Structure formats: C-alpha cells, structure tokens
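hey can u check if this looks right to u? its 163 residues, i copy pasted from the old doc so theres a chance i mangled smth
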Amino acid sequence: MRLRKFLPLMMLLITAIPCGAQIASGSANDEAAIRQVLAQFEQAFEKRDAKIYAMTFAEDADWENAFGSHEKGRANIEKRLRGVYQMFQQSNQTIKEVRIRFITPRVAVADVDREIVGQVSAGGDRKLPPRRVRTTHVFKKEKGNWQVVVFRVADLRNPQEVQ
C-alpha cells in the first residue's frame, strides 16, 4: 500500500532527471560564444580599454573586485575600471584554467584562474608580489548574445598562507 503512494512521486523524479540534464547543458556554439566574450574581456584588459571591457557586461551587471569595491551597471563599471587600470599599467596576466558550467541553456558560470605579475599598489609606490586570482563570470543569454551579469574576483591562496 505504501509503495503505491510513493510510486507516482518516484516516477516523477526519475523522469525529471533527464529533463534537468538537458536544461543544464549548453551547446558547443554557446560555449564558443562565451569563450569569445572571455577573449574580448582579456583583450580589453591587455589594452587597458575600459570601454571594450565594460561592453562584455549587461547594462545592469554587478561587478566586485577582490578588495571589496562594488559597482552596479555597465557605465559605473567602465568608470571604475579607468581608475583600476592605473594599478595594472605594467602588469601581465596569464590564464591558467577556464571552466564553464551551464546552469540553464541561458545561464552559465565561467571560472577563470589566472596569475597577475607586475601589479602596483593603489598609490603606485610599491610593486605587489605575483597574485593568483579567480574571476567568476555569471553569463546570461539575452536576444542571442551572452553577457556578464555578475562578476567577482577572489585571490587564491595556499592554505599555508592563511594559517
């Protein structure tokens, strides 16, 4: 008798699994499009071009760096980056790993691990040691285009550094 009560629920769960798997997958074209946006993002950083960098973001995007600075909206992100780029004039970054995960066919998360060398302090008076960072980009597909809606930077540290 109890089995009959749970059987419909079990069938629903079993049939929902393949649907969920399809929802969370993105096409090869979508992944390529996201990688293209990430490449545009990297090229803008190399050129220190805040306008091109900001164009990878949605109009209402959230941006936060590893130091807790937060901006809302593409225009504010662009304005902030003009100042931030002063700290990165002599720096270079190397991408170590890119991971893309589709949450739905229209939402994806890209984690990009990188190393930054040559960065200077905000005052420009001292050179900072090399940094390992992870940037997390939450993408949303709108009208066929992928744009960043949330961006976060986190410093990556060895466990020994924080003990």
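The radius of gyration is 20 Å.
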